[in-house]
TrEMBL record, chain A:
PANTHER family in alphabetical order: CYCLIN
Stored InterPro entries: Cyclin-like_dom (IPR013763), Cyclin-like_sf (IPR036915), Cyclin-Q_first_cyclin_box (IPR048055), Cyclin-Q_second_cyclin_box (IPR048053), Cyclin/Ssn8 (IPR043198), Cyclin_N (IPR006671)
Short name of any one Pfam family annotated for the protein: Cyclin_N
Name by which UniProt lists this protein: Cyclin-Q
One Gene Ontology MF term: cyclin-dependent protein serine/threonine kinase regulator activity
Organism: Ceutorhynchus assimilis
TrEMBL record, chain B:
GO cellular component, one term: nucleus
Source organism (scientific name): Ceutorhynchus assimilis
Name of this protein: Protein kinase domain-containing protein
Molecular-function annotations in GO: ATP binding; cyclin-dependent protein serine/threonine kinase activity; RNA polymerase II CTD heptapeptide repeat kinase activity
Sorted UniProt keywords: ATP-binding, Kinase, Nucleotide-binding, Nucleus, Serine/threonine-protein kinase, Transcription, Transcription regulation, Transferase
Primary location class: nucleus
SMART domains (UniProt xref): S_TKc (SM00220)
Record: residues binding ATP: 68
Amino acid sequence: MKEVIDVMELQREKARRAAIIDYRKMDFMGGFSPALFVFECGKKLNGQPLTLATAAVILHRFFKEMDHSNYDPYLIASSALYLAGKVKDDPLKIRDIINVAHNTLHRGSTPLEIGEEYWNMRDGIVQAELLIMRALKFEVGTIHPHKYMLHYFKSMEGWLGKDVWDNIPIAKLATCFLQDLHLDPAVLDYSPQHIAVASISLALQCYGVQLPLMEDLDDEAWYSVFVKDLQKDKHWEIMEKIMEVFSKETGH
Amino acid sequence: MQNNHHSGHPNSTAMNMREKEKYIENFNFPFCEEASKYQKVAKIGQGTFGEVFKARDINNPKKYVAMKKVLMDNEKEGFPITALREIRILQLLKHDNVVNLIEICRTKASAANRYRSTFYLVFDFCEHDLAGLLSNVNVKFSLGEIKKVLQQLLNGLFYIHYNKILHRDMKAANVLITKLGVLKLADFGLARAFSTNKNGMPNRFTNRVVTLWYRPPELLLGERNYGPPVDLWGAGCIMAEMWTRSPIMQGNSEQQQLTLISQLCGSINPQSWPGVEHLELYKKMELPQEQKRKVKERLKPYMKDPYAIDLLDKLLVLDPSKRADADTALNHDFFWTDPMPCELGKMLANHSQSMFEFLAPARRATQINRHHAIPRPTTSAVQDSGYQDRVF
C-alpha cells in the first residue's frame, strides 16, 4: 500500500469542492440528511475520520428511534459530534462546536457573543447529549467498516501487485465511497464487512480493474475470500445506495 | 438552533413553561428505565468516584443490585468522558470474573432536580469485597480457597487484557466476591483501552493511576508507555494480602512507596531493571541502593506454601517486561498442585453478613503484624435478604 491513505487530506479536498449549502433551507423530512452537516462541521473542527463516522452513526440511530419532526436536526448533529469526540477519545471542544455550527448555519455571521444565545445553545447541546444517550441505551460505540476495509486493502495490495496498486487510487476512492455512505441512514442496515466490500467493489468497477485469477470464476465473487455471507443482490444493493448518496450529494 | 431556539421538544414555541416541564417530566425512554424501579437499601461505598448503594429490584424483590451514581460535577461539559469510558468498557466486558453491568438508569427529571436527571450504573449485587473479607478475622481461607480466589482474579485479568483493557485500579477493595464464592473485578472508573504502540509511537497514558499501595514501580517512576503488567503488580500485592491480611506496602507518599518497594524487591537500578534509567523520574526520586531482594524471606512466615511464594516472586518483579503475565501466572504450579483450588461457597455460607471495606474502615490503620483487629460493632439494616448490612 502506498504508505497510508491520508483520509484527513481527502476530507479537506472534498470540503474545497463541495457546494455551499444553506442548511436552513434544507428539508429534512423531504429526504435531506443532516449527516452532511455533521461532516461539514466535523471537518472544520479537524475531527478524526472515525470520530465523524461515529457522529454520523449516532445521528442516524437517534433519528431511527425518535420522531424527526420533534427535534432540530442541527442541534442533534452538533450534539452527536460532541458525544462522538468523547466516545473516540478525540475530544472536540464544545465552544468550538458551537462556533462552527453557528457559522455553518449562518454563513458569514460573526462568532456568538457570550450571552444568552450562546448559553442556550451550550445547554441545548449538553442536554441533547444526555437525551441521545438515553435514547440509544448508552450504547454509543460502533464497529466501523473502516478497519475491515484496511485489512482487505492489505491483502489486495499483494493480490493486484504493487504496480497496479500504486498507480490506480482504488483505496482512495473506496474510502470516499465509504464516507459517502455514512451520509445515508442505510449505513445502519448492513454489516461493516459488507459495507467495506461494496465500497471497494465500486471503486474497482470505476477504474475497470479486474482482480487477477478471477476471470474464469463467474459464479464466485472476488470478495468471497474476505466475506462468505454476502449475497450478490445485497452486494449490488449496497453499491446502489452509495451511488444514490453520491447523486443526491452532487445534486444530479 | 436553526431558528435560534434549541429546545429538544416539539413545537416548543407553542408550549408554555408549565407544559414544557410536564413534557420533560413525563418523557419516556424505552431503553433507559427509571431508577425508582430499584429501592435503595444501604450505602455500601463512597469514594472519588461517587456513591454506591445496595438496592432491591421492586419487581423482583429477591433480586439485589448495586447502583453507582454517575457524578455530574461539571454539567456544562455534559456527560463526563470518564463515565462514558467506564460504560463502554463495561458493555464490552462480559465474563464470569468481571462485574456485570445490568443497565443504566435515570431519575425522573422534575422541579426538584432542576429538570436534570441523575444517572446510575446498575450492577449485579455482590455480597462481599476482598478487603472487607480480609479485615474480618473470623473469615478464614484455606490454601485451596486462596488458590480459587487468585485463580479467578487472574482469569478476570487475563480476560480484560485479552480484550485490550487495563484496569488501573487493582486493590482488594475492588475485588468483589459473591456469596457463592464467584470473584468479580469491579470499578472500571480508571480503566482504559490500550494498544501496543501504534506505528511505533509510544503511548502517553497518565501515570496518575492506581491506589498508591498497589502502584507498580514503573508508574511511580513516571512511565507513560505502560501496559498489562501494571495490573499484575496489583495482583501480586493482593496475593500477598491473602496471607498477611493487610496491604503489604503502605506508603504515604510516592517517595516512601518506592522506598518500601526497594526494601522488599531489591534496589531499583539498571542492573535489576535495564532501561529504568530512561524513566522520567529515575533521577528525581531517591532510590535506596544495596538493598537485597527479600520477597521470599519476608513473606515466608505468612506463606508456607513454596509454590505460593514462588508465584508471588514472579509477580512482584520490578522490571515490568519480566513480570509474569496473567496467562503465565495461571499456568504456575501453584494452581496445579494439591491442594487444588476449591469452591468458596461453603466457607462463605458461614458468614451471613455482607463485608465491604467501606463498612470496615478500621482496617486501614492496621499494621502488617497486628492483624487481629476486632471487627467493628455493627447494627443491621436489613434482615430479610439473609444478609445483614453493617451500617454505622
